[in-house]
Please model this.
Amino acid sequence: MMNLDLKEIIEKIYKNQEQLSAAITYYRQKNGNDQDFVDFVSKIEPGMFYSTELVSLVADKLQLLNSSYLYNQFNLQDILKLYEIVYKQNDLNIDSFKDYILFKVNVLDSNEDINKEVKEYIEKLDKEKEELVKISESIS
Model:
């Protein structure tokens, strides 16, 4: 019979998240060393990219690369795709959506369908709010 040690699994999850969070904080604060950041990203196991914080960090830092050699290996649409991944993985996170929209408007200078996207997003948030209000009222 197989055993499931949930406490051990939870402990591993917390440990991994703490390590990842520390690395993300470190690289958010660190500026200027493109190669160090590229080395960090290249060593990340593909399964770690489930973290929207990590994907957001990569998108943010790619915009700040000083090396034209590195910067020429991708285009701005690639960065937009990263922001899109982040907000779609966590579609109720307003900050993720704002990052996506602001990148489209400010960096890509693309206003196409922005108002429509924002309006649809607000409607989605309103529906979620209504559900929370119903839950709260049912508890009272």
About this structure: The chain has two domains: 10-74, 80-140. Residues 80-140 form one domain.
